[in-house]
């Protein structure tokens, strides 16, 4: 007799738990989302998640898709392939997501891409820029300019600034190397002379020796890839050592944290990115205002790109009436989108065709400098290459 | 001129390494534990320094609190994690230490956020222009100066005061020292406090140089400091100092001239392997 009571109560608890766990699953469309919430990229992950959540909330507030609410199924991938593979597998097998969005870096996104492709789940990538991602197959989409394209944009900006002698400071990961490759490809065509290139690793924050060497190189402009947590110390140390050449960064710098870390040294730094804070476009202005209202902080490129990727997937779902698979793939591919990061269309490789926004740090905030609009130079690779 | 600048940058970095590695050496000398979690106290110092300085507007108070909190943190770590394991083989403490380090990195992230933290009004930013295009931030010069001063004072304390001599005696023969009435517990506490306070102090310097503290800022120092104490001949204080400064300078040149083939953070280990092949007891140990 003794054992009956606990048995009974356990059963009740289990039944209750199952009811609660199961009930939302029927009525909702699941959208997978992998994002680094812990580890070195956690800061970007936080922005990314806020952006994606905002897109889902807005869609649900307007009635969801075909009468169903959208549920964002979030997995922390720590920006590593090791975590991304099980997360993607769980999304496909256990959660049976209808589509997925990457709010993560290239390393993890590349690993997850293969799994989503095999399962024929459309995967919209926000800001991971490695070329292999869209090569994984036709279910892959990317809403931001890939590394090579942005690198070419950087070279174009150097030319627009009237600079000839450039030093490259390259972050030794796929992000930095893809940017450098694009820059080096475009530089000779634009009359830019790369006098030296240095590489650094992700954990580096102290650039003393590198800074000394760059000073002796005496370049007209410095093209330095990195994220705000490497670029902040780098830019401040360059200025502290008396290097006055302009610095061109990219979307990895695109965070108010960059300005906070580098302080006054950040003034005048250029970045090529996807988010124009001074844009007149209604989609961008609305996003910037909504994001501030939702999070009480300013949006950055990562938030805007993740919002965009999520919204693109949702728009696709609206067209198919909530159906996934090949129908959703074709719907996303055929669409054209008016998003916070600009007007987007996909080419046959599902790479995005868009302008590059150049921002400059002025009075402690990112302001518009220019827009690079050069469909030939900025053409993403196609299926034919 | 580039060479002079590289040497100077190497010494700045080396000073930071020295402050961190010194605590490790003290602990190793006393307990034969490879105290990986020491780098967590370096991170803790960075955070405390930034927060106190931002709240009080006074950098000196920030430094003081950072050293104090890290020092006490070190003693707590010893009492809670290492003391119960002292009778176990050394690798048990090493594993505990690695676990402690990973846990504290995550704790920093949960408590202080993943974004990291910066000074709202960074101090010591003044530029010093020396002759021939040499230019340094005040903080860079003060790192070297304060490291030299602190280490000098510690050396004096260790050789001239009763407490210092008690520490030395305990390192060379704990049982004999105890029979002379030295309290082992006190000596261990003092060692952990001083070593950890130095790490916390170094954390504030790094926070100043980068204007950034992050949950993961201890990960590179954690293993590099191990390489340094091995290079210096385990447990030798002067050896550790020399190895730290030497490694700083070698890294500075290596970053520029070996950058294409060797990662900056791999240089320490390439150097370590090269040294151990020739001198297995470390560079400065008495054989």
Provide the residue-averaged pLDDT of chain A: 89
State the name of the first-level CATH class of chain B: Mainly Alpha
Number of strands of chain B: 2
E-strand count of chain A: 14
| Strand content range of chain A | 15-25%
Low-pLDDT runs of 5+ residues of chain A are 1-6, 16-26
Separation of the first and last Cα atoms of chain A: 74 Å
**Can you name the CATH architecture of the largest domain in chain A?**
3-Layer(aba) Sandwich
* Element pattern of chain B in H and E: HHHHEEHHHHHHH
Structure, described:
- The complex is a heterodimer of chains A (385) and B (287).
- Chain A is built from 13 helices and 14 strands.
- With 385 residues, chain A is an alpha/beta fold.
- Chain A has two domains: 212 residues, 3-Layer(aba) Sandwich (Rossmann fold), CATH 3.40.50.2300; 142 residues, Response regulator (Rossmann fold, 3-Layer(aba) Sandwich), CATH 3.40.50.
- In chain A, the strands form three sheets. A seven-stranded mixed beta sheet of chain A has the order 7-6-8-9-10-13-14, sandwiched between helices.
- The longest helix of chain A is centred in the first third of the chain and has 24 residues.
- The relative contact order of chain A is 0.13.
- The N terminus of chain A is likely disordered.
- Chain B is an all-alpha fold and 287 residues long.
- Chain B has a single domain, classed as ABC transporter involved in vitamin B12 uptake, BtuC, CATH 1.10.3470.
- Chain B has eleven helices and two strands, in the order ααααββααααααα.
- The mean pLDDT of chain B is 88.
- Classes of the chains: A alpha/beta (385), B mainly alpha (287).
- Chains A and B meet through α2, β7, α8, α9 and α10 of A and α1, β2, α8 and α10 of B.
